Amino acid sequence: MIKAVFFDIDGTLVSFHTHRIPDSAKQALCRMRERGVKVFIASGRPPVQMKFLKDLVDFEFDGYVVMNGQYCYDAQGVYHREHIPTDSLHMLLPYLEETGLSCSFVELDYVYINRITQPVVDLYEMLGGTARMEPTDDPARSLTHTTYQLSAFLPREQEAALLEHLPGCKAARWNPYFTDIIPADGGKPVGLQKTLERYGIRQEESMAFGDGGNDIDMLRYAGVGVAMGNATDDVKQVADYVTADVDADGVARALEHFGVI
Predict the structure, then answer these.
(1) pLDDT digits (tens, 9 = 90+) for 23-52
(2) Is the pLDDT of residue 128 over 70?
(3) How many structural domains is the chain composed of?
(4) Which own/partner pairs from 232-235 qualify as long-range (CB within 8 Å, at least 24 positions apart)?
(5) What CATH number did the domain enclosing 235 receive?
(6) What Cα–Cα distance (Å) separates residue 130 from each residue in 56, 60, 143?
(7) Entry's PANTHER family (predicted)?
(8) Phi/psi of residue 84, each to 5°?
């Protein structure tokens, strides 16, 4: 019996085409609540960007696994947090200056970027107003402020070179424009584990929905991993079930298939 369901946001709950949550998914959230199923967000976005969800759906999620599992909280407070090591950031900053790469620095309530490049512009056009362009700021700020996650704008083939300048970190890519960088021992599965422990729910009683590369480990960890029909092929390969696209009622269809609603 499924007692907890975790949802990625972009491309899973929220359509890249309409930038909305389908009505069928909204109804499914309410039906799960009526059945006593706990409903959580599991996203690469930071807490400061969770506010837009309230504009999209009148629903209070039971908790949030954000920044790819680096920060987890619910109405009672924060129950897990992990940040990028400062020593790693000391190594990164000269590399960013040398290469001219754009990189976002994600704090708890503030997200900034070192420089605006075309991939940054392309990303925000794709997100269609569900996130605002980050302000530019001095990346040296990261040496004195807690940074939970980075988002480096570079192609996949350049990830290895970047990580050589970020010891103790790993890449969690969900988008062709950029890759998220998190601590090597972090990730969405860690956030799921901490959440399930907090609520006394077993791993096999959990379900997770995702569509991007940073969802792969989460789908593997959950009792049932569901890939959206619009997911990338590598995500579909690890999923227990592949549902329809987000715009074709994929969330509701999968929940009905497994008898969750």
Answers:
(1) 999 999 999 999 999 999 999 999 988 888
(2) no
(3) 2
(4) 235/210, 235/211
(5) 3.40.50.1000
(6) 10, 18, 29
(7) PHOSPHATASE YKRA-RELATED (PTHR10000:SF25), PHOSPHOSERINE PHOSPHATASE (PTHR10000)
(8) -70, 130
Distance from the Cα of residue 217 to its chain's centroid: 12
Q: Is the pTM of this model over 0.85?
A: yes
For residues 95 and 166, state if they share a domain.
Answer: yes
If we measure between CA atoms, which residue out of 67, 63, 20 comes closest to residue 47?
Answer: 67
Considering the domain architecture, whether residues 175 and 246 belong to the same structural domain is answered as no
Place of tokens 């009672």: 76
* Separation between Cα atoms, residue 25 and residue 32, nearest integer Å: 11
Nearest to 68 by CA among 213, 176, 216, 188: 188
SS3 177: coil
Nearest to 180 by CA among 204, 159, 150, 154: 150
Q: For residue 145, what are its two tokens?
A: 């402020």
Q: Which domain holds residue 107?
A: 86-183
Q: Do residues 178 and 200 both lie within one domain?
A: no
Per residue in 82-103, pLDDT (tens digit) is 999 999 999 999 999 999 999 9
Beta partners for 78? Answer: 73
Three-state DSSP at 199 gives helix
* Cβ 141 vs Cβ 105: under 8 Å: yes
Q: State how far the Cα of 171 lies from the Cα of 182, in Å rounded to an integer.
A: 7
Q: Choose the final residue of a domain: 183, 199, 215.
A: 183
